[in-house]
Design brief:
This protein is mainly alpha-helical and about 325 residues long. The chain is built from 15 helices and no strands. Helix 4 runs antiparallel to helix 5, helix 6 packs antiparallel against helix 7 and helix 12 runs antiparallel to helix 14. It starts with a helix and ends in a 5-residue tail after the last helix. The C terminus is likely disordered.
């Protein structure tokens, strides 16, 4: 009776995966080549320089983002990772997170813009995002492992799918939250839809978009650790080893390194979105110079036009 009522949904999905693998295998091989090349290049860029070079870069970014206190905390945190002998694993994890988060942002932000502008796109995308957010994290590894085999690439692909949803939702929410009167004012001045999007909607929705990017990065970091089960490098390897061997010391050291990376990335992206630190000061200074030059050119143009209009009045004799 149970066999009669049972729907072989899992078998259908397996047959579909087999069909996709056999038919589009060349495409997945190309995607694997591209992603692995980017990931290897990023890992080389982070792991090949001496640790003090990367430490100065991280401290400088922290100083620009939030000031000297965050820069000092970042320096101490990464020195702690170095003292735990997890520096190379941390750099590999950081490279994988940035690659996966960059791909997820490149997909989620344009998709969120389309969902905010077109109700049909939003209606189609929402159930897909609900499905992606409710699916257990380990399930993403199964099709990624079948399509791309073992290594960093299936971990990155699974991470992109896992971290995609917040970027789409918060981008759509931020653009929909822009005041309609401001958009109507831009339309009244004859601005095109593309210019309204670039110069009105995106700047006003930037805090919400950056919050989505922040969530994408945090989810990517959590999923990259799990992706070590399919061969992804980084700090996930020691975590999996500590689970298999019940090694509390190794698990604590690797987990603490993950926490330090998470705090650094979270505070960095959050400060860029909220405009804290010297980053906003630099942007404001450039904007002030642009506004100053624009106002000077406007004043000179007005003065020239005023002089031109006053010249014929002086040449005209007065009427008595």
């Amino acid at each position: 009776m149970n066999d009669f009522l049972r729907i072989p949904l899992g078998q259908w999905v397996e047959n579909f995966i087999d069909f996709v693998t056999s038919t589009f295998g060349f495409l997945f091989d190309f995607i694997k080549l591209v992603i692995s090349s980017i990931a290897d290049g990023m890992s080389f860029a982070f792991a090949s320089p001496p640790f003090w070079v990367m430490l100065i870069i991280f401290a400088a970014l922290a100083f620009v983002a939030r000031g000297w206190l965050f820069s000092l905390g970042t320096t101490l945190g990464f020195l702690l990772i170095l003292s735990l002998d997890q520096w190379e694993n941390a750099m590999d994890t950081l490279a994988l997170v940035l690659v996966a988060a960059a791909i997820a942002v490149l997909i989620s932000v344009p998709l969120g813009i389309l969902a905010a502008k077109y109700r049909t796109v939003s209606t189609i995308v929402k159930p897909i995002l609900d499905f992606l957010q409710t699916m257990p994290a380990f399930v993403y590894l199964i099709p990624a492992l079948i399509l791309f085999r073992i290594g960093d690439v299936p971990g990155i692909v699974a991470t992109v799918l896992f971290a995609l949803a917040p970027g789409v939702r918060l981008t759509e929410l931020g653009i929909r939250g822009v005041d309609h009167e401001v958009v109507e004012a831009g339309q009244a001045f004859g601005a095109s839809p593309g210019r309204i999007l670039r110069q009105i909607q995106l700047p006003l929705a930037l805090p919400s978009i950056m919050a989505g990017i922040n969530q994408v990065i945090m989810l990517s970091l959590s999923m990259v650790v799990i992706a070590a089960m399919v061969g992804a490098g980084g700090l996930g390897g020691p975590v999996i080893q500590s689970l298999s061997r019940a090694d509390v010391a190794l698990g604590f050291e690797a987990g603490l390194s993950v926490v330090i990376l998470a705090i650094f990335l979270d505070r960095l992206t959050a400060s860029f979105g909220s405009g804290k630190g010297y980053f906003r000061f630099i942007l404001d200074s450039f904007n002030f110079r642009a506004r100053r030059s624009e106002s000077d050119s406007t004043e000179s143009t007005t003065a020239d036009s005023g002089a031109a209009s006053a010249e014929p009045a002086e040449l005209t004799p007065p009427v008595r």
